[in-house]
Amino acid sequence: MNVLSLSRLCCIGWFGFLGIALAAPASLKQGFRHGTIFYSAGKKALCVNGVLPVTASATNAILDLTSPTTQFNATEIFQELFEAGSTIAQRAQKGTRTVQGTYGIGGNLCVPLEHGKVRTVKTVEILTHGVGLEKSYWDIAPGYSYVDAAATAGYATFAYDRLGVGQSDRPDPIQDVQAFLEVEILHSLAQMFRAGSVGGYKFTNIIGVGHSFGSILQVGTDSKYPKDFDGVVLTAFTATLTNLPYTILANDPSIAALNQPARFGGLPYGYLVHNDAIAIQEPFFRYPFFDPPIFQNQVDRKNTYTFGEEFTIGAVLKPAAGYTGPVDVVTGQFDYPFCLGNCSFPDNQLAKVMPALYPAANRPKSDMFIVPENGHYINAHRTAGQSFDQINRFLQNNGF
């Protein structure tokens, strides 16, 4: 081959790759309002950030709660909710109502940046974050990015802000932003991605990945819509909610508009945030297994949740009797909300998830992993990479 031919081949190869890089953004923006292109934290994925219009309808609880007028008032509600013999949760529910609409859901769709994978990606993971977090939990920094790890393994991801969080719409925090409606939004997202109406891809496999409350919503969706997801990954989760009152009280729920006036000053007082750094460390981080700058990153990015969610958080957690796919359960060794700080006492707490919540799941293809030296915010601890690797192996072993 002469120099001219070699030069032409090199140029064709370069511009061919450049063509993929330039063509991808236009298709990735499909379905998004105000789509903008960016790279993941470690530059392993090409992403679009924007807002998806998502239509959903749910049967919500009518909660006989008035929005608090002061922090004293808000704190008393939680004291009463968790006191011995409390009946406030039962007394507050005054029937049901249909809540429906088209909601703006902010999210990041990311596809592998590697030349050979961007065209062949067939699996998308829908990532649902927990209470007090937002979508950046999945892409914190290089080495702490689930999005990067998934892209390296050839998977697309869609990390979204739950209703009432971040870029997403913030409707009534008591009557609208409840677990019931959030299950229906996750269901709608799964349908949208399977239909090929987002990002220019018609994905063959839809994987649901939840964190904490996001895992509860994932189980709730699998229970009601067992065919939505081909595989399920539940992180920072076990089958018991009995420890959640301790966690919520440790979070010291604070009125968002008063705690963070510059960010949330215009919100109704039914929107809450974790009070301060200690309220985040105590239930979610295990020292010394995290780096202080990463911890501070999560403190700075704390986001909103609602009274409506706190009063309905367990109502959607029902056995997914019709789901027959594989399940992976991944929880930190020192997870406090779901293991009270020891996921191996008195035995492996993760092992109880399948029989309790997924009786018909594909047991031989399912897995579990207690992440060593890790807490509830798995992605923000130094051993996060071990959880990423285990989840990728689980997906690969199932042919996704």
Description:
By secondary structure, the protein is of the alpha/beta class. Helix content is 34%, strand content 22%. Strands 1-2-3-5-4-6-7-11-12 form a 9-stranded mixed beta sheet, sandwiched between helices. A 3-stranded antiparallel beta sheet has the order 8-9-10. The longest helix has 26 residues, at 3-28. Residues 1-23 have low confidence and may be disordered.
What tags apply to this protein structure?
about 20% strand, about 400 residues, alpha/beta, globular, nine-stranded mixed sheet, 14 helices, three-stranded antiparallel sheet
The secondary-structure class comes to: alpha/beta
Strand content: 15-25%
- Average predicted confidence as pLDDT: 93
Name the poorly predicted regions. 1-23
Put the structure in a nutshell.
The chain is an alpha/beta fold.
What order do the helices and strands come in, and which of them pair?
Layout: H1 3-28, E1 33-39, E2 45-63, H2 71-82, H3 88-92, E3 93-112, E4 123-128, H4 146-152, E5 156-160, H5 179-195, E6 205-211, H6 213-224, E7 231-235, H7 244-251, E8 254-255, H8 256-259, H9 261-264, E9 271-273, H10 277-284, H11 292-300, E10 305-306, H12 307-312, E11 327-332, H13 353-357, E12 367-371, H14 384-397
Parallel strand pairs: 4-5, 4-6, 6-7, 7-11, 11-12
Antiparallel strand pairs: 1-2, 2-3, 3-5, 8-9, 9-10
Helix pairs in contact: 5-6
